[in-house]
Design brief:
Number of domains: 1
Largest sheet: 8 strands, antiparallel
Structural class: alpha+beta
Strand content: 15-25%
Radius of gyration: 19 Å
Distance between the termini: 36 Å
Length: 284
């Protein structure tokens, strides 16, 4: 759960890039070059020509598997970003299917945080893969899941900000690429993931203000990504130790569509059963 007050404006993985609409310079920059290390241990450092972090992120996009509409949307941003940023790899214990459900339906976690009183952000799912977002601080946006499998999720977002930090309207587009490695440690499921962001700003955005705030917000994004990963791990711990309690909490998530809650509750049962099986085998 986020501890910094600003975290209340920047909740959950898929909302991070949207909030960055108000935080970056119009001059393209590649941040976090130190995180070029491949996810996991399968590096390609021995290749004759090392590609940049941004190029590596681009090549992870399965262009041939996207719809023509999604291709066009992503190409517009990826080919000419205002800024590219890669967050450091984060790791936690979590049932792999539960993790994917939380990533694909982020309103589950956002609604949990609302009940806990740590976030005013609202997510309203309009279609199967499309969500309207209002952070209650001036950012309104629309988030679309354009591709997803067990190792990769790609989101596209368009949004605008107008508030106390930047009084004029600042709009932009974001492509979020979440890479995930699913492993096992001591018989328990573990996920390692990192977030790549391509952000493109409208020319009308106040460049001086956003350039001034860029460094601060990128640091907050990395901190928030780390805290969100920890929160996913905490959800997993409750599923393991108190599945009925997590199911009761799911029933209180009134901003989440019923079929999504019901699927989450089934995943809670299955994950807990797997953990009980692991515990039984470890005693033998």
């Amino acid at each position: 759960m986020p501890k910094h007050s600003i975290f209340r404006r920047l909740t959950y993985i898929s909302a991070l890039g949207i909030c960055l609409l108000l935080s970056c310079s119009s001059t393209w920059a590649e941040t976090n070059p130190s995180t070029q290390k491949n996810l996991g241990e399968n590096t390609k450092a021995s290749t004759a020509k090392k590609i940049s972090t941004r190029q590596e992120a681009e090549t992870s996009i399965p262009w041939e598997k996207l719809t023509p509409e999604a291709n066009e949307k992503l190409q517009t941003v990826v080919a000419n970003p205002s800024v590219f940023h890669r967050s450091p790899i984060q790791k936690t214990t979590c049932d792999h299917k539960v993790y994917r459900h939380l990533i694909r339906y982020p309103e589950l976690v956002v609604n949990m945080w609302e009940l806990m009183g740590v976030s005013k952000l609202r997510m309203d799912r309009k279609e199967d893969y499309l969500i309207n977002i209002d952070d209650s601080y001036g950012t309104q946006s629309q988030l679309e899941l354009v591709y997803g499998n067990k190792d990769l999720h790609i989101f596209y977002a368009e949004g605008a900000y107008k508030g106390s930090i930047i009084p004029t309207i600042s709009s932009g587009k974001v492509v979020l690429i979440l890479e995930t490695k699913n492993t096992q440690e001591a018989g328990k499921p573990v996920i390692s993931h990192r977030l790549n962001m391509f952000i493109q700003f409208d020319k009308s955005t106040n460049q001086f203000v956003v350039k001034t705030l860029q460094g601060l917000f990128l640091k907050i994004v990395d901190m928030n990504f780390a805290e969100t990963t920890k929160f996913i791990g905490q959800i997993n711990e409750i599923i393991q130790d108190n599945p009925d309690g997590m199911k009761r909490l799911s029933g209180r998530l009134t901003r989440v569509q019923k079929p999504i809650r019901e699927q989450f509750e089934k995943l809670i049962e299955h994950a807990n059963a797997r953990y009980e099986h692991i515990a039984t085998n470890s005693k033998e």
